[in-house]
């Protein structure tokens, strides 16, 4: 790996081999999402706990302080909205020269395996990888399921992750599921866990993140389960401790309960 790419990778995967990304990109197809009405404020409130924010260029330029200490992973696909019939109808939205201008450490591209626009989204991934490889920028593939949440199972996700890795993604983001070890063992590049809709309890999130990491994921890219929590800083701190300080879920939950009362 070239020095530049290795250097960028080291910014988004910490020396312990783990990572914690805060996803604040949801507005790119959902508009103002509950808890994420002002993504810049969410970023500044939580930046101290996370290794990177996952964000679109519009929000980054408009709302995020350029002196922010955490890394930036740019969401570079879009082209549909939550009211579109076909959520998979995405194209690349951000050219690689803008990625460089924004000093992003990495980019994220959604891929919709089995959906109407499967081919187009795989090509989005390969085209972005071809551009990013010229500049040493890692690409995170996002295995997107759109409205079909039932796709979050090992057979589908291991196929989706493997295809993304074969295309050249440096990291693949996917969902935790039963038999997650099958997803991990079939994927030759590091896997990061996405969150999904807000769960009933904090412990549930801490448990699936912990299990996912035990089974081989390198970390998380979480959004709603942090900034839709009524104590987002406590949740971010608990996840940070679980990911980087090997705290077990129950202890991380105690940390959550006792944080900044
Ligand atoms: C939204 C995304 C998000 O980054 C990803 O789903 C993680 O967020 P959440 O934990 O809220 O699911 O790709 O388009």
Summed up, what is this model?
By secondary structure, the chain is α/β, with parallel strands linked by helices. It has one domain (3-224): Aldolase class I (TIM Barrel), CATH 3.20.20. It is built from twelve helices and ten strands.
Can you walk through the features of this model?
- This protein is an alpha/beta fold.
- It has one domain: Alpha-Beta Barrel (TIM Barrel).
- Helix content is 43%, strand content 16%.
- It contains twelve helices and ten strands.
- It has helices spanning 3-12, 27-30, 39-46, 57-63, 96-101, 118-135, 154-167, 180-185, 202-214, 224-227, 232-244, 249-258; strands at 19-23, 52-55, 71-75, 77-78, 91-92, 106-111, 139-143, 171-175, 191-194, 219-222.
- Strands 1-2-3-6-7-8-9-10 form an eight-stranded parallel β-barrel, surrounded by six helices. A two-stranded antiparallel ribbon has the order 4-5.
- α7 links the parallel β7 and β8 (171-175).
- The longest helix has 18 residues, at 118-135.
- The relative contact order is 0.14.
- The mean pLDDT is 96.
- Ribulose-5-phosphate is lined by residues 23, 25-26, 54, 142, 194-196, 221-225.
Topology diagram in text:
Elements: H1 3-12, E1 19-23, H2 27-30, H3 39-46, E2 52-55, H4 57-63, E3 71-75, E4 77-78, E5 91-92, H5 96-101, E6 106-111, H6 118-135, E7 139-143, H7 154-167, E8 171-175, H8 180-185, E9 191-194, H9 202-214, E10 219-222, H10 224-227, H11 232-244, H12 249-258
Parallel strand pairs: 1-2, 1-10, 2-3, 3-6, 6-7, 7-8, 8-9, 9-10
Antiparallel strand pairs: 4-5
The structure holds ribulose-5-phosphate.
């Amino acid at each position: 790996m070239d020095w530049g790419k290795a250097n960028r990778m080291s910014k988004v995967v910490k020396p312990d081999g783990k990572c914690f990304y805060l996803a604040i990109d949801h507005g790119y197809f959902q508009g103002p999402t509950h808890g994420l009405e002002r993504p810049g404020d969410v970023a500044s409130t939580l930046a101290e706990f996370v290794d990177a924010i996952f964000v679109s260029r519009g929000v980054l330029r408009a709302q995020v302080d350029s002196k922010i200490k955490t890394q930036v992973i740019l969401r570079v696909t879009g082209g549909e909205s939550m009211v579109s019939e076909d959520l998979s109808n995405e194209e690349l939205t951000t050219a690689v020269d803008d990625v460089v201008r924004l000093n992003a450490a990495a980019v994220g591209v959604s891929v919709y395996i089995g959906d109407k626009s499967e081919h187009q989204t795989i090509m989005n991934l390969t085209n972005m990888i071809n551009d990013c490889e010229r500049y040493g920028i890692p690409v995170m593939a996002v295995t997107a399921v759109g409205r079909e949440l039932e796709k979050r199972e090992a057979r589908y996700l291991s196929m989706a992750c493997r295809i993304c890795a074969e295309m050249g993604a440096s990291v693949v983001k996917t969902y935790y599921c039963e038999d997650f070890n099958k997803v991990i063992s079939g994927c030759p590049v590091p896997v990061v866990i996405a969150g999904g809709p807000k769960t009933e309890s904090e412990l549930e999130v801490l448990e699936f993140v912990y299990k996912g990491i035990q089974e081989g994921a390198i970390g998380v890219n979480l959004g709603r389960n942090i900034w839709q929590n009524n104590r987002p800083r406590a949740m971010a701190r608990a996840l940070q401790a679980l990911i980087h300080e090997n705290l077990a879920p129950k202890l991380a939950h105690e940390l959550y309960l006792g944080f900044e009362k």
